[in-house]
Amino acid sequence: MIHELAKYWWLIVLRGVLAVLFAVVAFLWPAITLAILVIFLGAYLLVDGLFALIHGFRVMKTDSSWWGFVLLGLAGIAAGLVCLFMPGITALFLVTLVALWSLVTGILEIVIAIRLRKELTGEWMLIVAGIFSVIFGILLFMQPLAGVVVISWWLGVYALFLGIFLLSVGFRLKKVSNPVKHH
What we know:
The chain is mainly α. It has one domain. The chain is built from 7 helices and no strands. It has helices at 2-7, 9-28, 34-58, 66-85, 91-116, 124-142, 148-177. α2 runs antiparallel to α3 (34-58), α2 packs antiparallel against α7 (148-177) and α3 runs antiparallel to α4 (66-85). It starts with a helix and ends in a 6-residue tail after the last helix. This is HdeD family acid-resistance protein. InterPro entries: Acid_resist_chaperone_HdeD, DUF308_memb. It comes from Chitinophaga chungangae. It holds the Pfam family DUF308.
């Protein structure tokens, strides 16, 4: 399973890069309007979901946990499409949408990491990313009427940590896909 995942390490790295870029946008422009925040978030969720979905289908024949990536991808795509096609939604719906997406993503990341624990060192980082996603979702449910600036910062912190963890896992998978030969 690990070698099949390692072939597509770059998809996880790309998801990490996108998460970090989203974090930068959230920190630099925290007071952007709700509609623009929804569009940025929708674009991120859609692209992240597409990459997870592609990854799931690429490993379908060789990895029994392919369904986790497919579900992760579908959740991201659905959340992204709602954001992009309904930009006038209320802040409450945005918070609920992000909270649901974060909870589903976190749970699936934890499940995937548990399945990888015997094949990949450092899988704890994906577990931490999953726990962070679940905690973030719970915090959003607890504060549904938080201001757009606070939501933007929360999203930025979440995306930054998620991006760092995904980059770390992706580069560890790259090492598995290209083992260094010792002479």
